[in-house]
Request: fold
Amino acid sequence: MSTYTGVLISGTEVESYRNHHDNWFFRQGDRIRENVQRDQDGDIKDESFIGYRASAASIRKRMTLSGIDMSACELHFNEYLQAITGELEELISYNEGRLLQPKDALSVREHVAGITRVNRLVFEAIKDTRLADWIAAFPVAARLQKEQKSYSFNETYWSEASSSPLVNAMLSGFQIYTEFPCLGYFNFPCNDLRFFQYAFLCSCPDDAICELNILPLIQSGYEDDFRDLEEIQHEETKPHAISRESILDIKGLSDTQPLNLSLQRMCYASIITAMEAYLGDILKREIFSRQAVKELFVASYGPFKNEKLKLSDLYTRLAGIDAEIKDVLDGLSLHKIDTAMNIFRSTLLTTFPPASLDFLGAAVERRHDIVHRNGRDTDGEPLLIGHPEVAELARQVVEFTRAIDKQILDGLLHEHEADRE
Reply:
């Protein structure tokens, strides 16, 4: 089943999409997540807004910088107005000739007469118009369009919603037969919608809202939510939320049997594993989702820096670079604090909180003894790890990963804001 959405200017659609969306003249910094709430099934409610929003002044400026300005718009309009009026004249002449032929059935003659009448009314309404006339008429046409009854596709009709013939022509339905598209929204003469959109923007105040809501596409599974904006709003990345919830679950398990030392050791080791999983997940995600981060990793990771590359092998290596990076990341032992700290500093420009390093370094050694020495130290003595130690480790790890996660979020926020005008 198809899902539709479109770009709106002051509430009037100027471009439509089915099962996808184009960014149009919006930028990353125009993205909005507004009033986003989920129902009991976790689905986003219909009253939410996830999409793009910018002012008419901003979009006009971007269109001008892309070559769509008033001068270009006027040239394009004049060319296609001539094409439309010329085609209408031919159709009117052809159909009037058909009406003189008595062999057609009465119903056919009535149909042709109706088409001819509409075509002539449209022709007379638009033939001597200028671009400025259309721009001046758009606000009225846009308002009346919302009040006008809907017609079926390809239906021929003449609107009588206004005392202005041009506005009525904008709201009417008629067909012309050319080898190229030459009608935009409101029957605007063009074969490139960008010229209609620029003209329509020129009829709007600078603070008019241009927006594209992709929520229907997200709800239908055709598009993904703006992950980074969602994380910024929740002040937590998805990998950190998963890690934090896992640590809370482990802490809850520890709470159930505080005197069971075997359980406490298992929980202690699992918390370190959750920390390592977060470090690995967020590192891998940022490297593969942001080209600049990937380049930093390749440029700074020791084994890559020391490799020699023949120019003849360049494209072969480039084709397989993602697989090489994935293999390296999968093989990293990120529970080793020094290893993780160096990679995060050079790749994500992220520092580890110094106050946590000694505590977590010792905890990692304890985890090693739990996993590889059955909970005993190098002298064979049982580790003194009970419920209080597990609780403290859980607190310290969440505090540690949250400090790192905040820096990741700051990077996403700065990247988002840098794209605003």
Q: What stands out?
A: The chain has 17 helices and five strands.
